[in-house]
Amino acid sequence: MKKKDLEMVLQKVKNFEDPDPTLEQYMTPAVIAADILFDAYRKGDVEGLKIVDLGCGTGMFTIGAWMLGASQTIGFDISESALGIAEENKKGLGAEVEFRHQDILSVNEGADTIFMNPPFGCQNRNADRPFLDRAMELSECVYSIHMANTLEFVKEYCSEHGREVAYYKIYKYEIPHTFSFHTKTKKTVDVAVVNIR
Questions:
Q1: For residues 99 and 87, what is the distance between their CA atoms, to the nearest angstrom?
Q2: Nearest to residue 65, comparing CAs of 95, 89, 105, 94?
Q3: How far are the Cα atoms of 49, 129, 145 from residue 135, in angstroms, in the given order?
Q4: What is the pLDDT of residues 121-170, one digit of tens each?
C-alpha cells in the first residue's frame, strides 16, 4: 500500500461527535496519521506485529496499523462515545481490529509497537505523562504525539526512564474550533512526533 492510498482511506475515519474537552479529544488528521504510520511501517515497526493504540479515540491509528499488515491491533479508550464511533469505523472499513473500553492506566496488554496521541496537557497539566509511563512499560517501541515546545522535556523524561527518543518529526497540527472556549475558527500548532525506544 502506498502512503497516499493509506491517507485516502484514513480520511474516511469518522471524527468525534461530542468530544470531551477534559480528555482533549482531537482526532489526529489523516495526513499526519498516515505519515507516522508509514514511517513506522518502513522501519519494520508495523507489518506482522502486535500493535496497541493507547487512547485510540475513533480508531485512526488502530485501523491504519491494520491496513499496513499488523498481525493484531487493539485500541484502548476511556470514552464509550468515542469507542462507539470507532466500532462504526471498524465496520465501515471492514477492519479486523479490536477496541476495548478501558482506562489506559489499567492496560496490561504488551505490544511490539504502541501508537498514541495523548492529551497535550492544555486542559490538565501533565496529562501526557501517564500515557508515556504506561507506553514505556508495555512496549520497546512507542510512537507518540506531543506539543513541539515540550520536546526537550519528553527527551529528558524518556532518558530518566531508561529510554531514548530515537527519532522525531515536527508537524503543523490544525485544531478546528471544537469547544466553547475556542476563540478562533481553527488554530495551527507545532507538534513533535517522537519514536521512543
A1: 7
A2: 95
A3: 16, 10, 12
A4: 655 678 889 999 999 999 999 999 999 999 999 999 999 999 999 999 99
